[in-house]
């Protein structure tokens, strides 16, 4: 593949809310991939996802109206940027583990569409609040429903399939598998738009893919120790289906930004309520509901916490996009990935010498190397 590249940051956040999936793309002045997020783009390097991963310059360029990110120019702005990055990181980690706890309840595990509709509503409510004159963080723009429907369907799959993966997988496998968003989006952009990556970036993605394959194999092996958490076959299937759906959504987002001349906030403001409304027609036929009066109070608290984390992620993403550059964004993305993977490992009951840990290091190391290559490539391009 030639060297006319488009990159995107790896998606490292829960795919529940995709504003994050846009962040890297917007940050780099392009959309591809992210989250975020979710949301996406052209070539890999967004995030989050990326999240965010997600998240990028793939095949989608931000609309002309999209403002260039303002770099911090004072001690106060630097402090503000750091605080928002910490808040975003903690909220992303919080939403993944909170959702995992919610899905660990058998009575809630199969109510995924209802849960997604709830998050879409929370996302819309957050964006509606941020668009009010009191905050004026972005100006809403309307798009015809018929134009948004395909993207809303993709957005729903982009959230539901990864959440099902989280429900039937360990947190470690769930997060490591999301690393495949980067090579998958790159492949889709190459096939659809002939967008290419630098050769060294492609080489870096090879160990990332190998590492994910190793984790997929070892993490799904049955364990004689009941205290060791493993990933089921359904978890693996949902994970890879979710990767495909999220990647397709990422690529579509890119074209929709150009087609509708909207930035990520404006586009998500149109998508979220439509996706939530459409799910209402499917929920009665797909979801298995618990007896609501028998759901423990602590589960209701977790559901509210999940919605709160989604709000915080969307809000903090706005400030991160505006105040930080690609290096900061990439570092934050990797911090989130490594933190979630490490905490997931600690709670999995696995020994330090478990073979899947090798795959974790190979996958994470590969995606970090890829990010370094892409940042250097962008720096060289900006100088020439």
TrEMBL record:
Main subcellular location: endoplasmic reticulum
Keywords, ordered alphabetically: Membrane, Transmembrane, Transmembrane helix
Residue segments, region Disordered: 1-57
UniProt keyword Transmembrane helix, yes or no: yes
Cell compartments where the protein resides: Endoplasmic reticulum membrane
Bias (Acidic residues) ranges: 46-57
Organism: Hyaloscypha bicolor E
Organism phylogeny: Eukaryota, Fungi, Dikarya, Ascomycota, Pezizomycotina
Function per UniProt: Involved in the import of GDP-mannose from the cytoplasm into the Golgi lumen.
Pfam families assigned: TPT
Segments crossing the lipid bilayer: 81-98, 110-131, 143-161, 173-193, 200-218, 233-255, 267-285, 297-315, 327-346, 358-375
InterPro entries: Sugar_P_trans_dom (IPR004853), TPT_transporter (IPR050186)
Name used for this protein in its record: Sugar phosphate transporter domain-containing protein
Superkingdom of origin organism: Eukaryota
Protein family according to the UniProt entry: Belongs to the TPT transporter family. SLC35D subfamily.
Membrane topology annotation: Multi-pass membrane protein
GO CC, one annotated term: endoplasmic reticulum membrane
